[in-house]
Predict the structure.
Amino acid sequence: MRIGIVLYPTFGGSGVVATELGKALARKGHEIHFISYSQPVRMDAFQQGVFFHEVMVPDYPLFHFDPYEVALTSTLVRTALQEKLDLIHVHYAIPHAPAAFMAREILKTKGLSVPFVTTLHGTDITLVGKDQSYEPVISFAINQSDAVTAVSSYLKEETLRHFSITKNIEVVYNFIDPLAIAEEKKECTKAIAAPNGEKVVMHISNFRKVKRVQDVIQAFRLIVEKIPCRLIMVGDGPERNMAENLAEELGIRKHCMFIGKVKNSLSILPCADVFFLPSASESFGLSALEAMACGIPVIGSNAGGMPEVQIHGKTGFLSEVGDYQDMAKNALLVLTDNSLSSAFSKACIKQANAFRLDIILPQYEAIYKRVLLEAGPSF
Ligand code: GMT
């Protein structure tokens, strides 16, 4: 199949999932055309069957806001015509689903049928989409999609709760690629962070409010009071300064490393002894799945779709949102008991196996085949 994949090109989970999905589909012989405003961070140059099309928004003094959705729609129409796309798969509803709808309708006027699949990732529904400014358009674009998927049952239920949905939403979980994990594990450089064999606590996110990075810092203070350990904070975003200041105020800054964005989190995760994800809301928690796949127990919140991926008391522990004291207590259990941490580590790898690429990819392929059959022949 020739598939156009629309995505955010950044470090966020939706972009990572979309890019890894496209690369894996290309390895299976499909032709993949990524469409975004810049090259996706996880895209490798010159992979067989993988192409990138940049959305350019022309500058004009009249525009107070860039008409990105219009530029994206035009790029979709152009790419579909030039590359003879069979279908379009958009990741993250805003503004990708309305743009794909418009493109599909424009192509219809040319006698072409190019269906689109929308994958909902989380904040497009739970934080941004349900805002009254977007809701009518997002409801419409979801209902008009030829197929809709959500990355967890929680996200499916949230979508049905907040939007007027008539379309069936299928749950297709996020995935990990065991081959990529095996490859990256070789690179573990724990001694850089913990030269004296300290335990390593790690958090990876975009440092937005929803990630509650302050809970990571507060919990770490309670942990470092008890055992020698280091905190590695990976990523960047609006709450980073606050987190660094809090670490300073609490007198633990010297035990922390804020290392900024890392292109591939799999290259750093194996350095950790526990992974923290205390989010206020999390539709799936891809970074926690990646940690589990590396055998790293997860200390997190029981928010959103987290309990669909994590098994409380087996792959780590889930606490109430904001209860950093409980998180610290749980982390200390794992960090101070070698047999517990090794049992958790094995359970993590086993549970992450349920989310393997080779299990999830055919689910997307089956959806593509179905919508193509329903849409009928095009090019
Ligand atoms: O977590 C973020 O803020 C980034 C966001 C994104 O769109 O990239 O992540 C969402 O999609 C990921 C991939 O499906 C999920 O693993 C994350 O749980 C989800 N984030 C939230 O729901 C907050």
Summary: The chain has a mean pLDDT of 94.
